Protein 1
Amino acid sequence: MDNLLSNYMKLTEMVDSLAERIRGKLRDSITCHKGCSGCCSAITLFPVEAAAIRRRIESLPLEISEQIREKTALESETERCPLLEDDCCLIYENRPIICRTHGLPIIFDENGTRRLDCCPLNSIQGEKLEGESIIDLDRVNHLLVAVNALFLKERGVAGESSQRVTIAVAVAGESGSKGKIT
């Protein structure tokens, strides 16, 4: 499985590096910190992200992994991310790509118009931002789609690239009627 996830791991490293550079440039304007979870909502994941989360949870001690499975099953219908405990992510080092960009200035296409967005708690509004201080979310998402397609192709399920799953499904290791994710 590690080999199948290597492209995804490289993408997460790239996004982390980009996010760290942006935090360095914007320093005090970014107020995101441990326990700040306003952006943490229940999202859906590509199969490659689900497999990475599943692998992480399976690597934890059995007692902890079972607690996470129970928690996500109980909270799977809420708007908040079921992987939050005391406003902290239980798998922070292995969080999905979108979570790695939360709070930072992002630019994306919305109905044919480029839109800039950032967490309103950050003091960036009104600042003139350079391109190096903004994450092009569409580019990141295109890379994620490509990595996911390659992951599925290597697993022999290339036709399912658009099938996304909830965090609770990812943690449980299911992918709907298709069976196991991992």
Protein 2
Amino acid sequence: MSEPNTQQEFLDVMAECHELFAKKLHDYGASWRILRPSSLTDQLFIKAKRIRSLEITGQSLVGEGIRPEFIALINYGIVGLIQLGKGYADTVDLNAEEALKLYDRHAKEAYELMTKKNHDYGEAWRDMRVSSYTDFILTKIERVKELEDLQDNALVSEGVDANYMDIINYAVFGAIRLKV
């Protein structure tokens, strides 16, 4: 058996996420452009809470498992980064090509951050429990809520964008670990 390759596994998950994002973009357009930051944070929150509920109860009444929710967190995290950069809109103001270009830019930034952190932390994520990724994601979401409530008056904290990036990266790790 060959050694795991984090960079390739990350890129594989991101390709899967990109494909799903493109399909949803086809079906719904960039309807997410109307989401205000707090609504997007709440969407991330309900996805992460669902993962935690599934981890604790082991039961899904709607038939979807944990991995699709990690994929959703990745895509909503990237949407969050796009929204931070562009602000929300009252109408859909991006076509699919523009949305995918922004998506790819932020996916690349997440990959670059993961590569740097993974180097410094020595692949520690591989020895963590998947449930810890969920808890860390929920913690990051709580931090985002607090930062949103402070309305740019934080004293020493990383910004919302850094928290979104961490959410994306933890969710990618979860998706990698749960790949069948």
